[in-house]
Write a structure and sequence with these properties.
- Helix content is about 10%, strand content about 35%.
- The chain is mainly beta and about 200 residues long.
- The protein is built from 2 helices and 10 strands.
């Protein structure tokens, strides 16, 4: 039986587009503004305050964003609603790990968040759940794991990408190949008991 996807894209009322307006599609430079909201509708930290630009179709945007933005023109807005599986996954008890006490700062407290990073790879947030005499219990699940989220997206601009932009996008895609996740832990920010 096919798995039912919980992803839903809600398009705002689109105005009749100018026939000369560039549509978002492969090899276009698209500028978007977005806000990510948790299941309570609260904005999630980390979204850039200014619009971002990317070459469409080269892996610079999340696949779900590319799917939602395809065919839009400047001024169009969409809301992408994602279930846990399409966002940051379900909360996984296997994501709770125990490390030696000396791996993190001596003054670490439950609720604090640290980051584990690879020199060339992704950053993982680790929340302190418990500090014991010789070990510390950390939650490696994403802070939004298990939650429904929405992405409010506005297309601010669309134009054909230049040859230079296309070449940079191709080079970046090759350079972004996954690397082994060799982590070092350092304090990111104290967030109390907030994920």
């Amino acid at each position: 039986m096919p798995r039912r996807r919980s992803q839903r894209i809600v398009r705002s009322a689109l105005l009749q587009h100018d026939a000369d307006a560039f549509q978002v599609g492969p090899d276009t430079m698209v500028t978007i503004a977005y806000t990510v909201r948790d299941e309570d509708g609260e904005p999630v930290e980390g979204a850039p305050p200014e619009p971002v630009s990317a070459v469409f179709g080269h892996g610079q945007l999340l696949p779900v964003v590319e799917q939602a933005a395809m065919g839009l023109v400047a001024g169009d807005r969409v809301i992408i609603e994602l279930g846990p599986n399409e966002a940051w996954g379900n909360w996984d008890p296997a994501g709770v790990i125990e490390v030696d006490r000396e791996e993190i700062p001596a003054d670490a407290r439950p609720g604090e968040v640290f980051e584990a990073e690879h020199d060339d790879g992704p950053v993982l947030l680790l929340k302190v759940l418990d500090v014991r005499e010789t070990t510390v219990v950390l939650d490696a699940n994403h802070p939004l794991a298990g939650q429904r989220v929405s992405i409010e997206l506005e297309v601010c601009g669309v134009r054909p990408a230049t040859e230079t932009e296309l070449e940079r996008a191709r080079t970046a895609a090759v350079a972004a190949a996954p690397a082994p996740f060799d982590v070092s832990i350092r304090r990111l920010v104290e967030r109390g008991s907030q994920p």
